[in-house]
Amino acid sequence: MTGKRAKDAKVEELRRRGCLNAHPERVSDPGFSDSEFLDSRDLVQVKYEMVRKVKLEGTPVARSAAAFGFSRPTYYDAEAALESGGLPALVPAKPGPRGAHKMRDEVVDFVAAIRAEDPTRRPAELAEAVLDRFGIRVHPRSVERALARRQEKKRNLP
Question: Structural domain tally of the chain?
């Protein structure tokens, strides 16, 4: 793959992995304009180079952050990420909630009690019961997963 198709494929891959720099035009560091290897669209590469400039070349933090299109707090976040987790720590975390934030213990207890009384109740009916009781809209699949996690915990208890 060469030319425009290769660049488009790289942009799509960076986007898919959450590593596409939203503002590559803000990167003014000469290393990025003079190199075929360095790519201002690659967020991980840009942040790494920003920290490297400070650590190895002694560039002041404010100047390095500005040259790479970031703020000083972003620099310090990137520095801490590199120190604690290496290069993989610069890959942005997936956006959105982590875990079943709506299916709190009291909600799962409620759903499990209904299921215990009537094992034939479908997840869609249980989700509707959660909406009626708690005012929380949950997907039927979330109900299934929460009940499965509860069962798995019970099986793993000594």
Answer: 2
Residues 85 and 111 in one domain: no
Q: Do 88 and 18 touch, CB atoms closer than 8 A?
A: no
Q: Are residues 9 and 49 in the same domain?
A: yes
Task: Check whether residue 71 and residue 120 sit in a common domain.
Answer: no
pLDDT in tens, 72-127: 999 999 999 999 999 999 998 877 777 778 899 999 999 999 999 999 999 999 99
**pLDDT tens column, 25-71:** 999 999 998 888 999 999 999 999 999 999 999 999 999 999 999 99
121 and 86 in a common domain: no
Which position has the token pair 């509860």?
A: 150
Distances (CA, A) of 154 to 103, 106, 114, 140, 158: 17, 17, 18, 22, 9
Residue 67 belongs to domain spanning: 3-90
Residue 147 near residue 111, CB atoms below 8 Å? yes
In a domain, 56, yes or no: yes
| Residue-level length of the chain | 158
Token pair for 43: 């967020």
Contact by Cβ (8 Å): 145, 100: yes
